[in-house]
Amino acid sequence: MTNSIATARKVLIGSTIIILVVGILAVGTASTFYSLKETGSDLTYLKRHIIRVVIGIIACLVLSTRSELFFRRIALPVYILSLLAIIATFLFRDSQFAPRINGSVRWLDFGVRILPSDFMRFGFVLLAGLLISKGSVDIRRFRGVITIALLALFPSLLTMLQPDLSGTAFTIFVMLIVLFVAGARFSHLAILMTGLMLLGSSVVLIRGDYQLDRIKASLQENTLEQEDNYQTLQARITLGSGGFWGRGLGQSRQKRGFLPEAHTDFILAIIGEESGFLGTSTVMLLFLMLVSSSLWIARSANTAFDAVVGGGATAILLTGVIIHTMVNSGVIPVTGMPLPLISWGGTSMVVNLICIGTVLCISRRSTG
Fold first, then answer.
1. How far is residue 258's CA from residue 235's CA, in Å, rounded to a whole number?
2. Has residue 28 got a pLDDT over 60?
3. Which of 133, 194, 199, 362 has the maximum number of C-beta atoms within 10 A of its C-beta?
4. Residues whose CB is less than 8 angstroms from the CB of residue 18 and which lie 6 or more positions away in sequence, other chains included
5. Across the chain, which distance is largest between two alpha carbons, in Å?
6. pLDDT tens per residue across span 213-266
7. Backbone angles phi, psi at 290, to 5 degrees
8. Confidence grade of residue 212 (pLDDT, cut at 50, 70, 90)
9. Across-strand partners of 108?
10. pLDDT of res. 225
11. Three-class SS of 145-157
């Protein structure tokens, strides 16, 4: 068992490093047009991205050496501070501290822009692991499932009101995976999922806002005149134009103003255009290696706390990849979601590397 964990650790480290390098190359090429237009230099966004990667790596290395007691102690503070930060987006709504970006007020800007919901998900994973491992919550009973679910559903409601549909869906998926990893009964999960689906559908239909428009547009995929469908159509064109081999690094045509958010929400499409099906498949294989090794480490954990936290940290990485890929391929309506470890985005980069550092820490304790 010790040898298998050591192997999984090496695979996790290796795949993470390669994905980060791919991300630097991808942001470097995808952001050139936008960076030149906004800052007068085609390297500005690449330089900022590298700085964020370095900060994330430092956080990853620091956390990889911490004890289980450290993570237990920070669980409640991280969750509460993140929740308060989400509430702050409402208190400072439409001000310089909580600006409206693309119709949503979900960021806090105090000189450095952060997305509180990203940190909240990590805080939820830690707090859920703490409560379950201490025996404060019996996850085999429906009451216990609801208790853990409420820790995620309350901030999810707040993010939905920002509005941030992608952040809400992200948190709920992570919550369900954490409950599954923790040992919740399938019947209890089925009841919870059914209730959430009915509630979510009702909210979207009642509100009838841009979220419903995007869902309708995604079902009318051939209507070029639909403004809400523009990004989906451009993403498909971008992916398809790469063929098998791709146009070549830096040769994307769609990044020149045709595909919005090319360096963030649609960076996989740019990878597909420049490196083709071969390059996109390689990136997906790297993520498969990363997630598989992370899950193996979580499965081999010595304590219930490490098992839940390891599974939750992996869920954060996996969910981000799934949602980003589905949006870029037009399977689900467009929603802002960066590709973990690759897309431009400081908060996402740091939190994802924190998750990897946490899993590496668990692997160290499991082999120690």
1. 9
2. yes
3. 362
4. 286
5. 60
6. 555 555 555 554 455 567 777 877 887 788 888 888 888 888 887 888 888 888
7. -65, -50
8. low
9. 114
10. 46
11. HHHHHHHHHHHHH
Query: How far, in Å, are 37, 52, 274, 284, 294 from residue 238 at the CA level?
Result: 21, 27, 9, 17, 31
Alpha-carbon dihedral 108, 164, 236, 33, rounded to 10 degrees: -20
Check: CB of residue 294 under 8 Å from CB of residue 365: no
- Secondary structure string (H, E, C) spanning the chain: CHHHHHHHHHHHHHHHHHHHHHHHHHHHHHCHHHHHHHHCCCCHHHHHHHHHHHHHHHHHHHHCCCCHHHHHHHHHHHHHHHHHHHHHHHHCECCCCECCECCECCCEECCCEECHHHHHHHHHHHHHHHHHHHCCCCCCCHHHHHHHHHHHHHHHHHHHHCCCHHHHHHHHHHHHHHHHHHCCCHHHHHHHHHHHHHHHHHHHHHHCCHHHHHHHHHCCCCCCCCHHHHHHHHHHHHHHHCCCCCCCCCCCCCCCCCCCCCCCCCHHHHHHHHHHHHHHHHHHHHHHHHHHHHHHHHHCCCCHHHHHHHHHHHHHHHHHHHHHHHHHCCCCCCCCCCCCCCCCCHHHHHHHHHHHHHHHHHHHHHHC
Average per-residue pLDDT for the chain: 88
Angle between helical axes of 116-134 and 142-161 (0-180°, round to 10): 170
**Do 350 and 212 meet the contact criterion of CB atoms below 8 Å apart?**
no
Beta bridge partners of 41: none
Who's near 219: CB < 8 A, 6+ residues apart? none
